[in-house]
Design a protein that fits this description.
This protein is α+β, with helices and mostly antiparallel strands and 721 residues long. The protein has 25 helices and 28 strands. The strands form 5 sheets. A 7-stranded mixed sheet has the order 8-10-7-11-9-12-13. A 7-stranded mixed sheet has the order 23-25-22-26-24-27-28, sandwiched between helices.
Length: 721
């Protein structure tokens, strides 16, 4: 990829001369889709990022959100960030995924926070394909290696398989950091005369042009030809950088900071300078490097990992260098900030190689005005499948099967905060400093947004909110990672518009501010575009750190909340379901609740009640699969769904209308009372001390014991263990 003729003309017109080779490379990368959001920024104003809890919203390395405190708890903030590392993970799944973790952790550090939790949302082609499994195994190994080595737990996430990711998988990683208010810093340059100090790993030639590489379709030979654009991570150096960052904050030595990610030193330093409305003078010869004979462009654009640029007062530079040395990190004083109105200037071997306004570098790219086509609505055309066969195949489908093979490779209990472990609807972290439980859910469903981008994205937001509510937490804030194909294709851009508007509308309905995010377009290859994929990472808050489990206790009555179709109040639909993905066919997307905010807040209140023994969100695979997931060796369920029309049985059992929760309760009357006027409550049957699921719908009866269900759900582990 190179600077286009149109962009070249804009640059020449602005600076009054031909750009140098280094300047042209900087503009190429910083004006790429990956950095400048040229096709997506016009759409992002749809998101509401305001709220009393929002301390720092979109535009920084990570967002900062305040937490409610309980009891004697202190005021605490969290940071939230999300990053995509899609193209690199196709070319090199291990390093591509690992460096995605490293990047989002450094975004957390640059706000002054300590990273406490990760979520990984992964999307691959059909699980039956060998290449998809190769990518899957490599990505999970990369995330596991990096996260485990740096001591940050991976506590939640999602895995989805869909044919259209075959040529372009997605790796979306989110991080939460914990922050004392007085330690907050930003990526906004503060004061002329302060020094710019590069701390961390030495600079090499790895990752050159990574931002521009991420802004074009993957070619057929990408796995070999684009390998130099993929960074190589070193988690042990990252761990030292995490601890050094803490020491620098302890001594109040940092004025502002920026992680070196996309476009390397040139991207990080120019963005920091531009946000502060200042200029800078940088001497590239001073950068500590690990390869000989590097040129100016390589120093500027290499995306070598584990590096931070800090703004430091002159009198503190020596102490910063001492601390960097203590942690065996490189340290270079590479330049200083200059007065407002001055340019961003870089020199190399006595020659000026960059001399432009930082604001023009960061914000001068013109936005794209692209045509779009709305996708057609799917009509009902469903295959006839035996109920028994449908149950067996859906419970065993890789999309609904157990993800234990993934999360058992992660250290999800390091730092001793994880109260609800992976495998449940949401993780729950103990923020003891504030006396607050922090629920964390992340993911998307490509089947939903492929079938209906707008309604599917609304469902993704509701699904994540319901996940945290099912653990008794109230949704608090979210970040998004918006993934799409080549936006120059009108149908692709139409689908992308749909997921943006759908996610924004439902988050607004739920009163959940979207405080930051990431956009990844050009996820397109010779196999075609990916489904529009709106990953959402959402947190909820509650008092205390306890939550009802997903697993049945065997001592209560089972009810399902929010199932209007089961009550005959809505047409049960299979649009976007795993049922249609497995067996074929189409249908309209399920109708969503009229008052999602009231529904979710009531779920959160009721889930925390003493009479609730278990709670589980109904989502992928529908009600039948949700019930199967709750059964285990020590508790089962006897469920009977009374008279329904023959044609609706499978739609009732396997439809995926979001906003439903199965509760095991000792007081079903209290549940009905709480949801009166909010959502229907349907009694399903009783939990018991058996180890089996007995599910009857008219004359259809399904009987499976826990071991049979576990065998069905072990699809991924059986193939990869």
């Amino acid at each position: 990829m190179s600077l286009s003729d149109a962009d070249h003309d804009i640059v020449v017109d602005e600076i009054g001369r031909e750009p140098t080779r280094a300047e042209a490379a900087l503009f190429e990368n910083l004006w790429s889709e990956h950095c400048a959001y040229r096709s997506s920024r016009p759409l992002l104003s749809a998101f509401d990022s305001e709220g009393d809890q929002v301390v720092i919203g979109p535009g920084d390395d990570a967002a900062v959100v305040s937490l409610p405190s309980h009891g004697d708890g202190d005021e605490m903030y969290i940071t939230m960030g999300v990053e995509s590392h899609n193209h690199p993970s196709y070319v090199d799944p291990f390093d591509g995924a690992a460096t995605g973790v490293g990047g989002i952790v450094r975004d957390t550090l640059s706000m002054g926070a300590y990273p406490i939790a990760l979520a990984d949302c992964l999307y691959f082609g059909d699980f039956d394909r060998e290449h998809s499994r190769y990518l899957f195994e490599g990505v999970v190994e990369g995330i596991s290696h990096y996260g485990n080595c740096i001591g940050v737990p991976t506590v939640t996430g999602s895995v989805a398989f869909h044919d259209d990711y075959e040529g372009n998988p997605l790796v979306n990683v989110s991080c939460i950091g914990l922050l004392e208010p007085e330690r907050t810093i930003t990526a906004e340059a503060q004061q002329p005369g302060n020094k710019l100090v590069l701390v961390g790993n030495s600079t090499g030639r790895d990752g050159l042009g990574g931002a521009s590489f991420a802004s074009e379709d993957l070619a057929e030979d990408a796995e070999t030809e684009d390998r130099p654009a993929v960074q190589v991570g070193d988690p042990y150096t990252e761990k030292l950088l995490v601890e050094c960052n803490e020491a620098l904050l302890d001594e109040e030595l940092i004025e502002s900071a920026r992680d070196l990610g996309a476009a390397g030193l040139g991207g990080a330093s120019s963005e920091l300078v531009a946000k502060g409305g200042l200029g800078a003078r940088i001497e590239l010869d001073r950068v500590h490097e690990r390869e000989p004979n590097m040129n100016a462009m390589e120093y500027l654009l290499a995306e070598s990992q584990e590096r931070m640029v800090y703004e430091v007062e002159s009198g503190n530079v020596d102490r910063v260098a001492e601390l960097a040395d203590r942690y065996d990190l490189g340290c270079s004083v590479i330049g200083e900030l200059t007065e407002p109105g001055t340019n961003y200037v870089c020199t190399f071997e006595g020659e000026t190689v960059v001399d432009v306004a930082a604001e023009f570098l960061g914000d001068g790219a013109p936005m794209n005005d692209l045509p779009s086509e709305a996708p057609p609505e799917q009509e009902r055309d469903l295959p006839t499948v035996n109920t028994e066969e449908a149950f067996r195949q859906l419970v065993a489908s890789p999309n609904t099967a157990s993800k234990r093979w993934v999360y058992r490779q992660y250290d999800h209990e390091v730092q001793v905060r994880t109260s609800v472990l992976p495998g449940d609807d949401a993780a729950l972290l103990a923020i003891r400093e504030a006396g607050t439980g922090l629920a964390f859910s992340a993911g998307a469903d490509p089947n939903w947004t492929d079938a209906a981008p707008y309604e599917g994205a609304r469902a993704v937001a509701l699904e994540n909110a319901t996940n945290v509510a099912a653990k008794g937490a109230t949704p608090h804030a979210a970040v998004d990672c918006l993934n799409g194909g080549n936006p120059e294709k009108p149908d692709v851009y139409g689908g992308f518009e749909g997921i943006v508007d759908g996610l924004a509308d439902m988050c607004a309905d739920l009163d959940v501010p979207v405080v930051g995010g990431n956009v990844s377009l050009y996820n397109d290859s010779v196999t075609g575009p990916i489904p529009p994929t709106p990953t959402l990472a959402l947190v909820g808050v509650k008092e205390g750190y306890d939550a009802p489990p997903m697993a049945l206790s065997g001592e209560g009555t089972l009810v399902v909340v929010g199932d209007r179709a089961l009550e005959g109040e809505a047409d049960p639909r299979l649009g976007g379901s795993e049922y249609t993905a497995v067996f074929g066919g189409t249908d309209r997307f399920p109708e969503l609740p009229a008052d999602p905010s009231g529904l979710v807040s009531t779920i959160a209140d009721v889930a925390d009640a003493d009479h609730v023994l278990a709670s589980h969100d109904v989502s992928h695979g529908g009600l039948a699969v949700a019930l199967a997931e709750m059964v285990h060796e020590d508790a089962g369920a006897d469920v009977e769904i009374e008279t329904v029309e023959r044609g609706t049985r499978k739609r009732l059992l396997f439809g995926e209308q979001p906003g439903r929760v199965v509760l095991e309760t000792t007081d079903p009357a209290a549940v009905r009372e709480a949801f009166d006027g909010v959502a229907p409550v349907t009694e399903l049957g009783e939990a018991n001390g058996s180890n089996h699921l007995d599910l009857t719908v008219n004359d259809d009866r399904l009987q499976y014991d826990a071991s049979e269900i576990a065998d069905l759900r072990s699809t991924i582990e059986d193939e990869l263990a």
